[in-house]
Amino acid sequence: MTLSEEELGEELIGARESRAPSRVRIVARRFFGSRQGRVGFAVLVLMFLLAFAGPMLSPWSYTDKDFTAFLQPPSAGHWFGTLQTGADVYAVTLRGMQKSLIVGLLAALVSTALAAVVGAFAGYFPGWPDRVLSWGVDLLLVLPAFLILAIMSPLFGAGKWVLFVIMLALFLWMVTSKIVRGMTISLKRREFIQAARFMGVPPVTIIFRHVIPNLSSLLIVDATLNVSAAILTETSLSYFGFGIQPPDVSFGTLIADGSRTAVYAPWTFWFVAGLLVITVLAVNLIGDSLRDAFDPTSTRPR
Amino acid sequence: MAGFLARRLLNYLVLVVVASSLAYLLAASALDPRSNYADRTPKPPPAVVDAQLTALNLNDRTPLIQRYATWAAGVLHGDFGKSVTGTPVNDDLGRRAGVTARLVLLGLACGSLAGVLLGAYAAVRQYGWFDRLSAGLSFVVLAVPVVVLANTLILFGTWANENVFGRQVFLVSGEYSAGLDTGFWGSVLDRAQHLILPTVSLSLGLIAVFSRYQRNMMLDVLGADYVRTAMAKGLSRRQALIRHALRTALIPVATYFAFTFGTLLIGATFTEKIFGWHGLGEQLINSIFTNDVNTVAAISLLAAIAVLCASLAADLLHAALDPRVRAG
């Protein structure tokens, strides 16, 4: 090897180090490298497009009633058929989908944030804060969430869906916060946290600047999976009239209406149910692939 | 061991007391039994309504803490109070608890057994066709909420009755046919026909969860030294896997069991309501709509106790499977 080649080699190494791939890029490459991840992502993007751009394609809006077509099967005029009231199933379904997606996303974000904060505080402060928080978590695990949400449903009322989102989030975070707590306890012994402590950084700053960012991979995966959990819970609650209230519609209220006419008018049930299952499936696929992408030790034969 | 269990039991008891008290306070402040009287014609005079509500311990003009004290004193004597129609809550609950127990226990047994077996088999044949198929199917099942699954099963049942069997094989409403007179075996068959679809609806989700979990746990222990040692001692691969690998891999699943139980109760609520079984879950949904505070509180208490029993069972199962717990 000549001197110039060596220099070239060093330069190359130097160049590679200065352009070291960021963590986001590594994770993104691993994520899109898996077929599962690609399919899930593509399907979810399609679902979002359908929910938010789809209504513009149809001449019917979700409030329109076609008084010449009651409970008609899918046709050129009504792509998914019509309901008993003459409402266009396509327009109503997409409207419900918008609501379900928004509720799911918001509830997942709120619950994961809550899990991160409560878990990190409980893990960082042993002693009474840990005992109180852990006990609260256990309490919420004993109380069936559905029951509490159902009891509180008279408070949600029409148009108060933001309150519903917060309540939904309140019952999704417990298990994650237990995991976060365990990981915080082990993180606290690591050198960089110790260094920050001895430099006199206040504990709350350490939690938000060092502990929670170090758990980001867990939290991102958890937030993704919470989206599907929130959509499923929302559907079940709204099915029985405990969630989204009329005049708002969501997957749950549509499935409840559709299931009554499903035997003789299958289009009122299967389009909504199918879209719901596809959406949740796509979210779960993304969550699963993200978990693999974040985990450097995971190898999956393709 | 006894000390460990006693401590756990005490902790659970405190949790149940706090949880059910919270449920009562929530129900008493969120539900409005007074509105039940507003729609009656002729409208009863306010004094009569007040007297009626006070007699049922539902009057929202009585301070909440006083109503709670009355309710708690009653519960301590085993009396859950009266429903909005004035009938004692206890009579109704006993019958309904039996219905729910039959449905949940069967679903739980089917779901967890099948899930554990499928997961263990998938792990032994990792990346084989069975593993891939079960992974794909459990992904789909986990994306289907119980309300959609139950309705789909009803549609499938009615379709199969008409087009495959030509007679009523799957019965989709209620627990048994009323006024059936076909002797003992006839009614057993009738009950089984009613049971199939609700049980499937309850256990499919459990199978999906347990099989994924069991598979991962099993994969962790398959390569362990003690499994190899067991085979070196002369056990066949099958014996080594069942006696040593499966038993070890069951330990975390047993703990997980306690977490699933709450989910199962809720799943049972939906299943009961959709399949028309007159169990506790159905009653819970009905009583929220009729503002029946005492019934709601009683069912919450029963649900909390059920979750507690499941956690205790998980602890006991854990101790039975893991000798270290018994020693410690």
From TrEMBL, chain A:
Database matches in InterPro entries: BP-dependent_transpt_permease, MetI-like, MetI-like_sf, OppC_N
Organism: Nonomuraea cavernae
Pfam families per UniProt: BPD_transp_1, OppC_N
TM spans (from-to): 39-57, 101-125, 132-155, 161-180, 267-286
Biological process, per Gene Ontology: peptide transport; protein transport; transmembrane transport
Domain ABC transmembrane type-1: 97-287
Keyword annotations of the record: Cell inner membrane, Cell membrane, Membrane, Peptide transport, Protein transport, Transmembrane, Transmembrane helix, Transport
Protein family per UniProt: Belongs to the binding-protein-dependent transport system permease family. OppBC subfamily.
PANTHER family, sorted: OLIGOPEPTIDE TRANSPORT SYSTEM PERMEASE PROTEIN APPC, OLIGOPEPTIDE TRANSPORT SYSTEM PERMEASE PROTEIN OPPC
SUPFAM superfamilies: MetI-like
Protein name: Oligopeptide transport system permease protein OppC
Taxonomic lineage: Bacteria, Bacillati, Actinomycetota, Actinomycetes, Streptosporangiales
Keyword Transmembrane helix: yes
Main location (coarse class): membrane
UniProt KW Transferase keyword: no
UniProt-annotated location(s): Cell inner membrane; Cell membrane
Membrane topology: Multi-pass membrane protein
One GO cellular component, as annotated: plasma membrane
Gene3D superfamilies per UniProt: MetI-like
From TrEMBL, chain B:
UniProt KW keywords: Cell membrane, Membrane, Transmembrane, Transmembrane helix, Transport
Keyword presence, Transmembrane helix: yes
Membrane topology term: Multi-pass membrane protein
GO biological process: transmembrane transport
Superkingdom to which the source organism belongs: Bacteria
Entry's Gene Ontology cellular component terms: plasma membrane
Domain ABC transmembrane type-1: 97-314
Keyword Protease: no
A Pfam short name: BPD_transp_1
Location(s) in or outside the cell: Cell membrane
Transmembrane segments: 12-31, 103-124, 136-160, 192-210, 245-270, 296-317
Family, similarity comment: Belongs to the binding-protein-dependent transport system permease family.
Name this polypeptide is given: Peptide ABC transporter permease
Source species: Nonomuraea cavernae
